[in-house]
Amino acid sequence: KNEVEQSPQNLTAQEGEFITINCSYSVGISALHWLQQHPGGGIVSLFMLSSGKKKHGRLIATINIQEKHSSLHITASHPRDSAVYICAVTTGNQFYFGTGTSLTVIP
Amino acid sequence: GAVVSQHPSWVICKSGTSVKIECRSLDFQATTMFWYRQFPKQSLMLMATSNEGSKATYEQGVEKDKFLINHASLTLSTLTVTSAHPEDSSFYICSAPAGGPSRTQYFGPGTRLTVL
Questions:
Q1: Which of A32, A78, B46, B115 has a Cα at 20 to 30 A from B79?
Q2: Residue B62 sits at the chain A interface (C-beta within 8 Å)
């Protein structure tokens, strides 16, 4: 059983669509991270959350601590958003990572 | 599924000493591995890309002579923090892509380094 589960695993969207990626976790956490990885590259940290909601440009991340659930939203999606999005949580002593959501945005 | 391990999981050392952290892909080969660090209450930051058979590629601002990376085989990369100082205390994490069309990254559990 994975401590962090993401859905969907793969997602294809048309340019301009609103996209949601979900993350559920089963451990007590001190923070949750949303990470982005473009093909062949290392990860880029998008957000670090411990409560509530954060927004950066067209990206919005929310977390519900009681439900142990987080969502990453992309508004007005663009082909350059095509990447793998990874949810990761830290308990303070260890990191747990989801296996990622592969997003393809078609022009 | 693919697994990446790190050793040690935590280490405490005196200032001025060197510390080696190992990253292993347990059931797949990885020609590339990535090293990250996270300072308290901050996000993960990519330090360098480890390449099997060639030199590592370091991100801007990361001292290559201080953070020595050796990708000894297709399943092992090591990060050596040389002459460690208290400001090097951090959480160090590695990842490796398992191959395939999506090149999914698999992450190690991390190594917590505390320099006294």
A1: A32
A2: no
